[in-house]
Design a protein that fits this description.
Radius of gyration: 15 Å
Number of strands: 12
Distance between the termini: 33 Å
Strand content: over 45%
Length: about 160
């Protein structure tokens, strides 16, 4: 199997990943690791030789158990940050896709397992996203369904 495009560099780590914007009944689907205090989108790292479309379809199926479909690309995010639990610096490129609504979203699984532990699934109310610790933080204020691709740069280094 091809490796993830997460490359350890001398001064930190480069990540190439995708995230899914999954909405249902005015809620946004987010994930949370047991040891962390923040929520993040369903998604994951692109594998070498894999398209971003194939990645988001694979990741959403692995993490939700549903065969979701892509609506369109919504955000291109350049993110420079330090992961607090390891103090590792990241340079991350992430493409966020709006996913099409589908039957079964209300019965989505409550958790899934990753190499680093259990991940819980949460439906957060869109009107109250500002109350949560979210990554990316721009989800707190951004309009998630603009008719064009938004390019956002976040520098927390």
């Amino acid at each position: 199997m091809n490796p993830d495009l997460s490359i350890k560099m001398q001064s930190g780590r480069f990540n190439y990943r995708v995230g899914a914007i999954i909405q249902h009944e005015n809620h946004l689907l987010m994930a949370k690791n047991a040891g962390d205090n923040f929520y993040y989108t369903i998604g994951g790292r692109v594998k070498f030789g894999e398209s971003v479309e194939d990645t988001i379809l694979r990741e959403t199926y692995e993490e939700t158990g549903l065969p979701l479909e892509i609506d369109r690309l919504a955000f291109f995010h350049e993110n420079f940050f330090t992961y607090t639990s390891t103090q590792e610096q990241f340079h991350e490129l992430c493409l966020f896709f709006l996913m099409k609504p589908c039957d079964g979203l209300s019965q989505i699984r409550q958790s899934f397992n990753e190499d680093y532990g259990e991940v819980s699934i949460h439906w957060l109310p869109i009107n109250n996203l500002h109350e949560y610790e979210l990554f990316p933080q721009f989800f707190k204020t951004a309009q998630l369904d603009m008719p064009y691709i938004q390019h956002i740069v976040t520098r927390d280094l």
